[in-house]
Amino acid sequence: MSCQLFLREAEPLVLDCVRRLAAPHGAHPDLPSDTTETLWVGMHLASARGRAAYEKWPEPWAPPFDTARCWAFVAATARDSLTRLRTD
Q: pTM of the predicted model, to two decimals?
């Protein structure tokens, strides 16, 4: 399966999740505009060890750890990632 075909099939599922999830505590900060910094956030949140490093040694430009763990923020990050993959 090609990457583009996978993304086309995954997109409706991801967007449906994004529509159903709402942050109970309000708005979230934007992701960093730099793609490398955005990837850093995602890669650290993908594993327990990465999350521990994210919490212990925060980067000044990264969203706060508690915000980054919010399901609505994760869903918005997924939507942003799909958009970036389509346009980059």
A: 0.57
Q: Is residue 6 part of a domain?
A: no
- Smallest Cα–Cα separation from 23: which of 61, 80, 68? 68
pLDDT digits (tens, 9 = 90+) for 3-16: 555 556 766 766 66
Do 42 and 69 touch, CB atoms closer than 8 A?
Answer: no
Asked if 45 and 53 count as a contact pair (C-beta separation under 8 A), the reply is no
The verdict on residue 14 lying in a domain is no
Residue 46 within any structural domain of the chain: yes
Is residue 23 one of the residues assigned to a domain?
Answer: no
Distance between CA atoms of 82 and 10, rounded to whole angstroms?
A: 9
Looking at the structure of the chain, the number of domains it has is 1
**Cβ neighbours around 43 below 10 Å, total:** 11
